């Protein structure tokens, strides 16, 4: 997944972010350590760039570092505050495993793993 040339790019500690032409927030995970503090900062930034509105998230988890159980539980509590739905893709087995592990805990919002970016976008459009 790559941002289109005309998209405004946002760089954070955890991801490269941009909005696509449909208003879907796209996140390309970075291979940086995730903590509750870095996740709180990420959510605050997402709230800022979204105008405090819930958005649909398309996340490429290929480079995501494994979150701790405590962090997964925190994220599950916080997701409904920022997102309507989340679609995940990954080009790596580790990313797929992380996404599936995360989704297995509890689905606080509609979440699904997809093989392709195109499938993920189509699924998310129903929540826009």
Describe this structure in a few short sentences.
The protein is α/β, with parallel strands linked by helices and 128 residues long. It contains 4 helices and 6 strands, in the order E-E-E-H-E-H-E-H-E-H.
Structure description:
The structure is a single chain. The chain is α/β, with parallel strands linked by helices. The chain has one domain: Transcription Regulator spoIIAA (2-Layer Sandwich), CATH 3.30.750. 38% of the residues lie in helices and 22% in strands. The protein contains four helices and six strands. A six-stranded mixed β-sheet has the order 1-2-3-4-5-6, sandwiched between helices. Helix 2 links the parallel strand 4 and strand 5. The longest helix is centred in the N-terminal third of the chain and has 14 residues. The mean pLDDT is 91.
What would you report as the Rg, rounded to the nearest angstrom?
13 Å
The CATH class name reads Alpha Beta
Shape: globular
Supply the number of structural domains.
1
Mean pLDDT: 91
SSE map:
Elements: E1 10-11, E2 15-19, E3 25-29, H1 36-49, E4 55-60, H2 69-82, E5 83-89, H3 93-105, E6 111-113, H4 117-124
Parallel strand pairs: 3-4, 4-5, 5-6
Antiparallel strand pairs: 1-2, 2-3
Quick tags:
128 residues, Transcription Regulator spoIIAA, six-stranded mixed β-sheet, single chain
């Amino acid at each position: 997944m790559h941002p289109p040339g005309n998209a405004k790019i946002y760089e954070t500690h955890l991801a490269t972010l941009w909005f696509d032409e449909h208003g879907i927030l796209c996140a390309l995970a970075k291979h940086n350590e995730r903590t509750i503090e870095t996740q709180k900062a990420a959510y605050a930034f997402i709230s800022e760039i979204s105008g405090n509105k819930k958005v649909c998230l398309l996340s490429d988890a290929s480079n995501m570092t494994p979150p701790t159980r405590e962090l997964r539980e925190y994220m599950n509590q916080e997701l409904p505050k920022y997102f309507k739905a989340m679609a995940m893709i990954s080009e790596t087995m580790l990313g797929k495993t992380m996404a599936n592990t995360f989704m297995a805990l509890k689905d606080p919002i509609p979440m699904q793993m997809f093989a392709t970016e195109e499938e993920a976008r189509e699924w998310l459009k129903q929540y826009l």
